[in-house]
Write a structure and sequence with these properties.
about 110 residues, alpha+beta, two-stranded antiparallel ribbon, 2 helices
Length: about 110
């Protein structure tokens, strides 16, 4: 019985897709490179230095469109610092509880 349960667990874990998400430093990329990376991978973590606090690193999850957001979240336009631009336009996911009128953006 134990062998059957173990075999079932192995098959289930092998069949599940990897849920790893890539992490990048946005300051080592141009805006075009950052946007291309997000587009290619659908969702990534980008880290960057804080403007007001020296030696502090900030990070967020950036997505290609609303399909990369979880249920109950929507796509919101945000800006990411890159090596060639202080404000590169990208998208993040925000909970619908934060939603204001006319703020919803669906990008496909």
């Amino acid at each position: 019985m134990k062998k059957i349960v173990l075999l079932g667990l192995l098959i289930t874990s092998a069949a599940s897709p990897a849920m790893a998400i890539s992490r990048y430093n946005s300051m080592s990329m141009t805006c075009a490179e950052a946007r291309a990376t997000i587009s290619r991978e659908r969702a990534v973590i980008m880290r960057y230095p804080a403007k007001r606090t020296p030696n502090m690193t900030l990070y967020d999850r950036y997505v290609v469109n609303s399909d990369a957001c979880d249920l109950g979240y929507y796509t919101y336009q945000d800006y990411l610092p890159t090596k060639d631009r202080a404000s590169c336009p990208v998208y993040t996911c925000r909970p619908t509880t934060d939603l204001d009128d006319d703020e919803l953006i669906f990008r496909r």
